[in-house]
Write a structure and sequence with these properties.
Strand order of the largest sheet: 1-2-3-4-6-5
Distance between the termini: 63 Å
CATH class of one domain: Mainly Alpha
Helix content: 55-70%
CATH superfamily of one domain: Transferase(Phosphotransferase) domain 1
């Protein structure tokens, strides 16, 4: 077929493939009355597709097709399972209609694979594989997304306007990621924006995506589009850009919020839809909402009048800007549109509206409605001549003093940054973050510094904590407190903030009594909601580090509630608090909620242009901890790696934080990358020593000893253990270092076959966690290890009881994850127990199940997965059960 013929037939073929068979036949007959030759060509192209109602092929690559889950103009989508026996897995396999493989169809399908290969984002369905079957059928293997189209999800759950905007923000973040990788989606419509039951958006179907780089040789005449979401330039065949997807996002937002299409009436034919895209201006959102039925408004949790009020103003301006006919008048990219939507959520002035004095005043009053209402009430009382009571006068004076103190702090910080940047600008050499921090401290605490620099020193201390230098943070905070006491002892908010920072730093240095005393001091002070929120966040940090699930969640939720009521709360503060709620979900055994909430917190920061900040390093690190605790080791590895790379970009030439190096080394060890684990722990030890953080250094040294023990270097491990004991000194018995040392002793006893010693150590450690009500991942390991020691001396029933409890906890930690290293390792321990009892069939079944879990969680080539596959494949007649199990337990580290 000549290119010109394909360009003529392609739009008609797209239209026909979108129609059900009866409507398709009627439309083809209509074409035939006008142009019989074209109709005949279309019928020939459609003929191979007519028999595609069943399963076209049984397998594609390593995947076995099970059932059709989607059908569209471009092709069909099938639910598939891994069929080569290496591991269990579910995917969505996309097969293009064979009719579309004519002309440039194969190139277009290959381009979709090329576009997807560029993308890696939590809100984009990932590409797993691509290929061509023996009979010439191309296919893509994609992440299976068990979700609903975004409009169906919202309507079924009767989501309000703010919740719908939150979902749009997730979608726009995915689109912005694609644009950053030079990929246009070009088909943003509800069926391509899926939402899972836990509220996570997944962008799918890049079938007509376009690459923005110069070597993309797509024919400009191919108008591949969905009329309902097409931009004017797509219809007119003009050049496309990121603004094309912005227009489609505007259409989707209009439909999601107002429940109608901006330009096309329902049921309009394709030609009318395309003409309206170019010629018809969209009514305002509020005007569309005013025509909404009660049922439509109820799906948005309101009435028609309430919906019109909710959409008037900022939202209608944002959507109108996205729907401008002229691409130059729209938002320049998805990120800009997201930023305006985020401003809307936070009651800040949006860029889509002219920022006149009246509008800004209205936005200010909305953000500060509590303070504004108080001021209005006071003004009314004065106008009426009411005499205030002594209590009211005192309260007003306190609020005035608090406002003045906050203004002084803000002015001090602004003056400091001006001086710091002026000094840096005069230096022609590149300045690293460590150098900048050193200069900042000298500037803030030098001989010419003023007493008002106390809040600046507190801010610098927070930065040092984020970089893992608790000792330097303590010094800065001591200086800050001395300056505060000398300059303004009446500033109770600053006093409380510094006390809470000192409490957190003390806890990082293992001084828990000092931490409790500082928090108690802050709690006695009468301070504002913002200060209370900051202190509750610091209490959440401490509870997290001590695995206090209930305390961590309560403190984080209190902080979120306080910030919601505090008009001056910043988006960064809200995102930080949300990240701590995510960590609370993790500690309370809700991995899916934790991951979704971490996603939301990070996305909010990225939408604000704060994606490259220490706050995101912390969120990524905590996301890695949550994934690792749930048994999703490879996801944890990705989170830690991203966090480490960001930390190194933020401070080139300086060591990343010790905690981050330590955490990533643990995952490397779990993934059997022993050299990488040892190097990472050595770096963590050096970083902790440089920061004078004795407890972190001790823990890193103990973990190094465990690596040496795993390598069989018992003498080297013992030397490291002895050095750690010297470092430990008189640390509290519940410190992380003290617990890690007891865990090392247990591991060593198991490796050396000292079963009674191992059992006693396991008893002590299980009791330690049980007394504190901490059902955490290390308990799974401890129960497995105690089961091994018991099985080795013939206490099979007691060992089985330990494994039953371990499996219950492992499954709870796993949540709704498809696989877990904890579950896999408990199954592996069952295999050893069954083998010790002589139950070969049960041992093989446990090994097979363990291999599946371990391959998915740790990788198919991981030594533990390989060992379990081998154990499950042993023929029954060749099995030689042993009454004692003396092999060491699988690799693992305690957190």
């Amino acid at each position: 077929m000549a290119p010109a013929d394909w360009a003529r037939l392609s739009p008609l073929l797209d239209e026909l493939l979108e129609l059900p068979p009866p409507a398709r036949a009627a439309r083809l007959a209509a074409v035939s009355t006008r142009d019989p030759d074209t109709a005949a060509q279309l019928a020939a192209l459609l003929a191979p597709d007519a028999d595609d109602d069943g399963q076209p092929v049984a397998t594609v690559g390593a995947w076995r097709l099970e059932r059709r889950i989607g059908e569209g103009g471009m092709g069909s989508v099938w639910l598939a399972r891994r069929g080569d026996g290496r591991f269990d897995g579910v995917a969505a396999v996309k097969l293009p209609h064979r009719a579309l493989l004519a002309g440039d169809g194969r190139r277009r399908f290959a381009r979709e694979a090329q576009a997807l290969a560029r993308l890696a984002h939590p809100h984009i369905a990932a590409l797993h594989d691509a290929g061509v079957t023996d009979d010439g059928q191309p296919y893509l293997v994609l992440e299976h997304v068990p979700g609903q189209p975004i409009d169906v999800h919202c309507d079924e759950r009767r989501l309000g306007i703010a919740a719908r905007v939150e979902l749009l923000l997730q979608m726009l973040d995915a689109v912005a990621h694609a644009h950053g990788r030079l990929v246009l989606h070009r088909d943003l419509k509800p069926s391509n924006v899926l939402v899972t039951d836990d509220g996570r958006v997944k962008l799918v179907d890049f079938g007509i995506a376009r690459l923005l780089d110069p070597d993309d040789e797509v024919q400009a005449t191919q108008q591949l589009l969905t009329p309902e979401g097409a931009a004017p330039e797509q219809v007119q065949g003009a050049p496309l850009a990121a603004t094309t997807d912005v227009y489609a996002a505007g259409v989707l937002a209009y439909r999601l919020l107002a429940g109608a299409h901006p330009t096309a009436p329902p049921g309009a034919p394709r030609a009318a839809l395309l003409r309206a895209v170019v010629e018809t201006d969209a009514p305002s959102l509020a005007a569309a909402a005013a025509r909404a039925t009660p049922a439509l408004a109820a799906c948005r949790g309101t009435t028609p009048a309430g919906l019109a009020r909710a959409l008037a103003g900022d939202l209608e301006a944002i959507v109108a800007k996205a729907l401008e006919k002229d691409p130059a008048a729209r938002y320049r990219d998805a990120r800009s549109m997201a930023e305006d939507l985020l401003r809307f959520l936070h009651h800040q002035p949006v860029a889509a509206r002219r920022a006149g004095a009246g509008y800004r005043a209205a936005r200010f009053l909305r953000r500060h409605r509590v303070a504004a209402a108080a001021a209005l009430a006071m003004a009314a009382a004065l106008a009426a001549g009411a005499a205030g009571t002594a209590w009211q006068a005192s309260r007003a004076a306190a609020e005035r003093d608090r406002a003045l103190a906050l203004a002084r702090r803000s002015a001090a910080q602004a003056e400091f940054f001006e001086a710091m940047l002026t000094q840096a600008a005069q230096d022609t050499r590149p300045i690293t973050v460590p150098v900048l921090l050193a200069r900042s401290r000298a500037l803030a605490s030098g001989a010419t510094a003023g007493a008002a620099d106390a809040p600046v020193l507190g801010m610098l201390a927070a930065i040092q904590v984020s970089l893992g230098d608790a000792a330097q943070a303590r010094s800065l905070l001591a200086d800050a407190e001395a300056r505060r006491a000398a300059a303004d002892p009446a500033d109770l908010d600053l006093r409380a903030l510094l006390a809470c920072q000192q409490a957190y730093v003390a806890s990082l240095l293992g001084e828990h009594d000092e931490a409790r005393a500082r928090f108690a001091e802050a709690a006695t002070l009468e301070v504002g909601a913002g200060t209370r929120a900051e202190c509750r966040l610091h209490e959440a940090f401490v509870a997290q580090n001590r695995s206090d699930a209930a305390g961590a969640m309560a403190a984080a939720q209190d902080a979120v509630a306080l910030l919601d009521r505090w008009p001056a709360a910043t988006p960064v503060q809200r995102a930080t608090a949300l990240g701590n709620v995510a960590y609370g979900h993790h500690l309370n055994g809700r991995p899916a909620e934790a991951d979704a909430t971490f996603d939301l917190a990070i996305e909010r920061l990225r939408a604000l242009g704060r994606g490259d900040t220490p706050v995101v390093v912390t969120l990524l690190n905590n996301r890695g901890i949550a994934a690792y605790a749930a048994g999703d080791v490879r996801r944890a590895d990705r989170a830690y790696t991203e966090a480490l790379q960001l930390a190194e970009r933020l401070a080139p030439g300086a060591s990343p934080p010790a905690y981050l190096l330590h955490n990533r080394a643990l995952v490397a060890f779990d993934l059997a990358r022993l050299d990488e684990a040892e190097q990472g722990l050595q770096r963590a030890l050096a970083a902790a020593d440089a920061a004078d953080n004795r407890e972190s250094a001790t823990v890193a040294q103990i973990k190094l000893a465990l690596v040496r023990l795993e390598r069989g270097d018992v003498a080297g491990a013992r030397r490291l253990r002895d050095a750690a004991v010297q470092r430990l000194g008189r640390s509290p018995p519940d410190s992380m270092a003290a617990v890690s040392l007891r865990q090392y002793a247990l591991r060593e006893a198991l490796v050396q076959g000292r079963w009674q010693d191992a059992r006693a150590a396991a008893d002590e450690l299980v009791g330690f966690f049980d007394r504190r009500g901490m059902p955490v991942a290390p308990v799974v390991t401890l129960l497995r290890q105690r089961a091994q020691a018991r099985s080795a001396v013939g206490e099979f029933d007691a060992a089985a009881a330990d494994l039953a409890r371990a499996m219950t906890l492992a499954r709870r930690l796993q949540g709704d994850l498809p696989a877990s290293s904890h579950v896999g390792r408990v199954l592996a321990a069952y295999q050893q127990l069954h083998a010790a009892r002589g139950d070969t069939a049960a041992a093989r079944a446990a090994a097979t199940n363990a291999a599946s879990q371990l391959a998915a969680a740790l990788g198919p080539d991981h030594p533990e997965a390989v060992a379990m596959r081998a154990a499950g494949a042993v023929p029954p007649g060749n099995a030689a059960p042993s009454p004692r199990v003396t092999s060491p337990p699988p690799r693992e580290f305690f957190r």
